[in-house]
Structure prediction request, 298 residues.
Amino acid sequence: MRTIPQRIIAVALLLGALAPNAHAAEQKLRVVASFSVLADLVRNVGGDRIELTTLVGPDGDAHVYSPTPQDAKTIAASSLVVINGLGFEGWLPRLVESTGSRATVVEATKGITPRHGEGANADKIDPHAWQSVANVKIYVSNIRDAFVNADAAGSSIYNANASAYLQQLDALDREIRSGVAVIPAARRQVVTTHDAFGYFADAYGISFVAPQGISTDTEPTAKDIAAIILLVRAAHVPAVFLEKLGDGRLIGRIAAETGAKIGGTLFSDSLTGPGGAAPTYIQMMNHNIRELTRVLVD
Prediction:
């Protein structure tokens, strides 16, 4: 009988040891998230069980995003595409259709009661539902259920991850409410760049006025800005805040003509990179309530 060289046996053993890892990598659920805030929620639920790609990354503006050819390839190769919905990603349905992808599109806001914009935007659905932690708990449940349906073998992992993250969200909600409670009721009014905080206002009792509409691709008219200046003066709005994705010149003009204090930066539509002030959803919300409290408390 011919003897098998020891070197061949060693290589075979090595390949055998690597095979489970290669198989595990192949079995990862390929998931696409439309933008950075949503991607963070997806990551917390999916953990190491998924391979995640984010279309609009940190510091990106999903309102005005232009898809790339690589985005189409990414979607075509995915199993799930997780979107916010409520009209936020107006560019995405056509992109998914154009790829011929069989990926399941998961609308994270399913089951959430949508609100509408203010004033001239009263006929438009406000897509910024993640500004309410209670809504984000619904996002997480929808994402968990979609993962379990797509990958039943990982159901225990998805359920455990979601449960742990929901507990963190409960703690976050308590922290926000504690922060708002120390702000005098008469000072719970601010101006921001665009109308992105309506769900936050409804949930936590701080009034937001914005010169832009619910999308950053709208431009306020001179009449809009004049009306806001009159409102700020009449209501004695104490502060105006910049937004990471907004135009600071608008805020500067309103502050100069009303005497309102300029606060720090609030994050609405996007997270930052790892070194920034808001690299996760929870850190974004904590940052925002700290800035509001710092400026609005006498």
